[in-house]
Amino acid sequence: MAYGIGIAKGLLTTVKHLVREPTTFEFPEAERPIPPRARTNLVWFVERCTGCSTCAQACPDGCILVQTQPREDGSYLVERYEIDFRLCMYCGLCAEACPYEAIQVGGSYTNVVRDPNDLYHDKPTLTSLANEYLDAHDWIYPNGQPAVRQEIHPAGERQHH
Amino acid sequence: MADRETIPVLNVEPPPTAEETGTDIESDLRQQLLITQVDSVLTWARRSSLWPAMFGLACCAIEMIATANARYDIARFGAEVFRASPRQADLMIVAGTVTWKMAPAVRRIYLQMAEPKWVISMGSCSNIGGPFAHGYSTLPGVNNVVPVDVYVPGCPPRPESLLSGLMLLQDVMKEEGVLGKRRRPEPDGDFSTMLPEGDPIRRELEALFPPYLSVSGEPRDTETGALPHDTNYLTMHGGSAPGGPA
Questions:
Q1: Which of B71, B151, B163 has its CB closest to that of A116?
Q2: Is the predicted pLDDT of residue A4 greater than 80, yes or no?
Q3: Judgement on whether residues B156 and B84 belong to the same structural domain of the protein
Q4: A88 closest CA partner among A36, A148, A40, A133
Q5: pTM (2 decimals)?
Q6: Which residues in A lie closer than 8 A to residue B167 (C-beta atoms)?
Q7: Burial of A102 by CB count in 10 Å (0-12 exposed, 13-18 middle, 19+ buried)?
Q8: Which of B142, B155, B175 has the most A C-beta neighbours within 10 Å, making it the best mutation to test the interface with A?
Q9: Is A138 in the B-facing interface, judged by CB distances under 8 Å?
Q10: Sign of the four-CA dihedral B75, B81, B87, B92
Q11: Which CATH class is domain A33-136?
């Protein structure tokens, strides 16, 4: 009498899995939403940066280089801002340390290279990557604040003056 | 070949005959329509079934395992068959910190894989040493030991990054073709700037680079490739296996 109940239960599980949503995210076409505290790539926004070097002091690897020049009004011109993503361990301590949230986590996953030296990003590269990020995300920073849609100078100079 | 390409356009000499240069079969073959069609089919077959060697060195291996799981499903790219033997693998995913103690094993696994073979360096540690780059115990980049095709940054890289690396490698294979030249730099096997003279790991590593001398510097047998102190099956029977090909 009880014969077949177990088989029917097993088949029921199979049918349930047949009709439910697939678990696979087909990556290049569909991206999984990034958790808010995930440690992903860093994005640096030149228009938010004041050149205080807090990120470079917080970096355990020492992979951030900041070189500044004082302006006449007392603010700093960020001459060089370079991140060595070969060394970077994506701990996000720089993003936590930055008082102006100029460096934030939330970049793309497709930064794979054939030459490891391509992972050393200087200021123009970082600026263009940040612009790509803002273009792709409706001009909203990773921390949820809206960005002012503005033309970034090719050299990355702040435009607030 | 290099000399022929650098001849100024106005002083073109007639191309050397096959007797002068020796027949360059490969460059002739690359021009032929039939061969290029076969090449594209072979490349498609190769890049659609990359079998990785199953080993992981550190925390990146966890993400590599996650890539094989149903959520990301590396099987969609034909690379889900993680082989336990390097003889059956095409792809080496160096996932994690390569310590000096592990470096000879990594090099040996690479040498044991059959050609054609590709290498993905996964994570900052294997790219350049990562946070341990200035330490005493870590190899500053796995490209000192094996030639690397694709570098995947991250610490550890998320599965999406590894999938991006796999897709870039498939593009590289498509671009290079079967007959094309491999553009990845080969390691030179010079560890004099990293390890002291007489270091046992340095001797072991240098024995794994051409001309593949033994650790004590003795040459290998030219026919069998065996070291003098090896007592394997072939050398025990005078260089030929009974019952096998002479």
A1: B151
A2: yes
A3: yes
A4: A40
A5: 0.81
A6: 28
A7: buried
A8: B155
A9: no
A10: positive
A11: alpha beta
